[in-house]
Amino acid sequence: MASPAEEQAASEEEHPATSELLSVGFNQDYGCFACGTDSGFRIYNCDPFKETFRREFNNGGIGLVEMLFRCNILAIVGGGKNPRYPPNKVMIWDDHQSRCIGELAFRSEVRAVRLRRDRIVVVLEHKIYVYNFADLKLLHQIETIANPKGLCALSPASNSTVLACPGLHRGQVRVELYDQKKTRFIAAHESALACFALTLDGTKLATASSKGTLVRLFSTADGSKLQEFRRGADRAEIYSLAFSPDARWLAVSSDKGTIHVFAIGRPDDASADGSAAASTSPNSNGGNGGNGGYVNGGAQANGPVRNSMSSLALLKGVLPKYFSSEWSLAQYHLPEEAKSIVAFGPQKHTLIIVGADGSFHKVSFEPTAGGECAQLEYKKFMKPDEDESS
């Protein structure tokens, strides 16, 4: 049996025989994804698919990994049965130096971390902290309803600083418009929030509740409901929501094993179903937004096609919402049942799907005809005998 010193010396060079995947998440532009494992972390490029690098620690798990685009700075949090770092600390890792260059400590376990070039956002179960990236100065504290999933979204666009998080009431989303120094509350769902996402510029918010049947689209500027999408008729756990960079499409993954793609925007006024309750108040804490570094992916008002709708939708003022909601344009049925997250690939009309079982899918959807997505690539990246060059 190798000594701890020998294991440490070899950890950067050798693949562990087995490695448990603890978390997976995309970077801000969906070009990469990061995996936390019970022995370190790994970074993968999405297209072409390739492992970029990995860092293995001697008997130390990383539960959360948050990238900052493709730069050498990451935020990591210890996790697993034997955490490398305390789960109540966010470690700022500089991969050029292969060491931590800063840390933020809290009184409870860190549930999530979000980064942009000028901000670090740390999510605890009942509180969110917003820091300036350059000097780690605390800018804003937000109290939330119980948030064990660490739900939080942060716009990465340089010209817009928007943060979305749970409010203090069930189904409520709090939106911080830092550039306008305003706070908006959106009553998105009657049930508890399960997932939400912002467009790159933060102008649109997609939400799903614990029921998982509907996905709603809101304007963050005024809180109005823009569209309502139906994933299905039965309950489901929504795992992820993702906007395309041009905000023309929305992708949804759930425990049903089907990825749905919805078209954003339509000729008729989607808000006719009734706007969600929204209110505006001055920002109670002067956390100013600054400039990050991202090419603005401005929202498009109209998608090229419509989602499927019931022929009875014309009677939406009379019939239940089941008939007036929009159904997905395209779908992809995963061959395996595993928790998965979805994002849009760099190539037009492509999706990247990463599963908790170490599966990678690249698929394409037809923007006009819709229907079943075509699989372009499939990999299993957590196999013990994996080949990095494949």
TrEMBL record:
Keywords, comma-separated and alphabetical: Repeat, WD repeat
Cellular compartments annotated: Preautophagosomal structure membrane
Region (Disordered) residue spans: 272-295
Cellular component, GO annotation: cytosol; phagophore assembly site membrane
Pfam (any one): PROPPIN
One Gene Ontology MF term: phosphatidylinositol-3,5-bisphosphate binding
InterPro entries recorded: PROPPIN, WD40/YVTN_repeat-like_dom_sf, WD40_repeat_dom_sf, WD40_rpt
Compositional bias per record (Gly residues), positions renumbered to this chain: 286-295
Membrane topology: Peripheral membrane protein
SMART domains from the UniProt entry: WD40
Origin superkingdom: Eukaryota
Compositionally biased region (Low complexity): 272-285
Family the entry assigns: Belongs to the WD repeat PROPPIN family.
Name the UniProt record assigns to this protein: WD40 repeat-like superfamily protein
